[in-house]
Design brief:
There is one protein chain. By secondary structure, this protein is an alpha/beta fold. It has 9 helices and 12 strands. The strands form 3 sheets. It has a 6-stranded parallel sheet. Helix 1 links the parallel strand 2 and strand 3. The protein is globular, with a radius of gyration of 20 Å.
């Protein structure tokens, strides 16, 4: 697990065990929770003192607040969720991401920008191996056209944006501008997803269907299956120097997923394993099916059945 940086705990950065902690998580934009770091002094301390990768959520809170104030003045206290990508805008994302990149270059910090959501931000990455970026399934799979159908079920931070942004993010996986794929898993209850831009919680449960979603995009020719493996397994293990994980190699832990192509099935409520028991993918039909999952060589998931008695092992880094 990451060390969560705040405005008041920057002195603790020097005490972290680099073999136990993978990196520092930093919110440069307000999201779910109260971990916003908005002090210039704190930001400089974090970027200058971090001895491990800094993963950053990048959105400019001032811009977002101004956009929300304007939207409320025009549309009421809880604007429709379709306005979410205009409130948490491209400009708000780029302003924060570019600031993080500038600070990383100033201090030589190993920076990883989480859940990049816009085409504009991509110009910041792919030129410096010390500065990388992540895309998440929601931004690769959905676009703002889906708000009419799915509403707040796809409300997340940063917001799902345009079909053009989605297309460019997909291309960036192949070009190398995007290094890793994540899920940004946030299993809010459906009652917490009620409302619009102001009231509904942001985030969605995406871990369970992340691999089959990526394999579907590979089938569509968006990228290769090899690229799926690289971005979801190899690259994260390399970035955080996770010991004996992320590859099928002699001496490595046997963390394996067996998937079967040509096995059509539809996401329904009864097959959702997340405790929140909903998914924005309900009703979607996949052609790939996960049959078995091995963790540390142990058969943990077998055609819908989970071995609840098994527990994993602590990861070690560097």
């Amino acid at each position: 697990f990451f060390f969560g940086a705040t405005n008041s705990n920057t002195d603790a950065l020097q005490t972290l065990d680099r073999h136990v902690v993978p990196g520092v998580k930093l919110f440069m934009g307000a999201s779910t929770g109260n971990m916003l770091v908005d002090s210039d002094d704190s930001l400089h301390k974090i970027f200058s003192n971090a001895t491990m990768p800094v993963m950053v959520h990048c959105e400019d809170t001032g811009m977002i607040n101004a956009n929300m104030t304007e939207a409320k003045s025009r549309y009421g206290d809880d604007p429709d969720v379709a306005l979410h990508p205009l409130i948490r805008s491209e400009e708000a994302c780029y302003a924060s991401s570019s600031r993080a990149v500038r600070m990383a270059r100033t201090y030589g910090t190993r920076l990883h920008v989480a859940h990049v959501s816009t085409a504009k931000e991509l110009e910041l990455f792919g030129h410096d191996g010390n500065i990388t970026a992540e895309a998440v399934i929601a931004h690769l799979f959905f676009s703002d056209e889906d708000y009419a159908r799915l509403g707040t079920r796809i409300k997340c931070n940063p917001a799902v944006k345009t079909a053009y942004d989605r297309s460019e993010l997909r291309k960036a996986l192949s070009s190398g501008a995007i290094s890793t794929v994540g899920t940004d898993h946030a299993p809010h209850l459906l009652k917490d997803k009620e409302g619009g831009c102001a009231r509904a919680a942001s985030g969605m449960p995406m871990i369970q269907f992340s691999l089959v979603s990526m394999l579907e995009l590979a089938d569509k020719g968006v990228f290769t299956i090899e690229k799926v493996v690289e971005k979801m397994a190899h690259a994260p293990a390399q970035m955080y120097e996770i010991q004996n994980r992320g590859f099928i190699r002699k001496g490595y832990q046997a963390d394996l997923v067996l998937v079967r192509p040509g096995s059509e099935w539809t996401v329904t409520t009864d097959c959702i394993l997340s405790k929140c028991k909903w998914s924005p993918l309900e009703g979607h039909t996949f052609d790939w099916k996960v049959e078995k999952t091995f963790v540390n060589g142990h058969l943990l998931y077998n055609n819908g059945e989970i071995d609840e008695t098994y527990r994993g092992q602590e990861l070690r880094f560097r």
